Amino acid sequence: MTSDMSAIKIENITKTYEKGKVLALESISLDIKRGELFGLIGPDGAGKTSLFRILTTLLLADSGKATVEAFDVVKDLWDIRKISGYMPGRFSLYQDLTIEENLNFFATVFNTTVEENYHIIKEIYVQIEPFKNRRAGKLSGGMKQKLALCCALIHEPKVLFLDEPTTGVDPVSRKEFWEMLGRLKDRGITILVSTPYMDEASRCDRIALIQKGKIMDVDTLDHILEKNYQEILGVKAANRYDLVKAINQFDNLKSCFAFGGEQHVVLNDGFKSKDEFQQFLIEKGIENLEIRVVEPDIEDVFIKLMQENSND
What we know:
The chain is of the alpha/beta class. It has two domains: 3-226, Rossmann fold; 230-295, Alpha-Beta Plaits (2-Layer Sandwich), CATH 3.30.70.100. It is 33% helix and 28% strand. The protein contains ten helices and 14 strands. The strands form three sheets. A six-stranded mixed sheet has the order 6-7-8-3-9-10, sandwiched between helices. Strands 2-1-4-5 form a four-stranded antiparallel sheet, with helices on one face. The chain has a four-stranded antiparallel sheet with strand order 12-13-11-14, with helices on one face. Strand 1 and strand 2 (22-33) form a beta hairpin. Helix 4 (118-125) packs antiparallel against helix 5. The protein is elongated.
């Protein structure tokens, strides 16, 4: 990928806390294209927020470099702030100000007005405009989310940074929010969004899986699933505790983890006898046993990569 196609370029970024004792990011490198909706997928504590704060010029990395639209995050911080919209994980608008007052404030900060850029936020703002005199602290999670997005967009940014925007939001609002992001992408805005929800990976053009400050894989969702394919058995029984205990006694077990109401089991490479595994569990006294072949999804792949990385 040539540099002129890159909206965000990250090269070997490392960040530690507590005088180097806590490693938050380890040699992170990413190249995000202009107009791309890129997802950073990982659990709490994976390093997502640290990376976002570095890219939005709020935090200095220990080493490495990063650029946003060719502006250096250290040398060109004011240029980056002019072209970037940032929606942090925690609701950070003024709780005592109304919807309208918050929006006017952020427009003024960026030397513009709501009237001048209303066309940018109109589709989102019309959903909360009937409540424009309500204080931000009194809004529901979904309405807070829409207000924060309007404030991040009011100065017409080229790049949008959204740190876990759907955390704590109801499923309907989550769906609506991703539909809004799709329409913003259609306008040519580059969007970097982080989320702990694996199912949201399908909404992104490409994703990076991050765990303990390391990028485990970067690609489209389909390619990640394809290259990390492994046969998974979905196993359930009357007594879950006895089932898990028995599964972990099987010699050819590679991994076992809970997934909904069943256990997802991976057997050692080369061991293909599902019947032998089933017979083993029956002999262990497992009742009402059900075993089926499961199509792996992104959560299965994440756990696989996590285990491989922990063994390195």
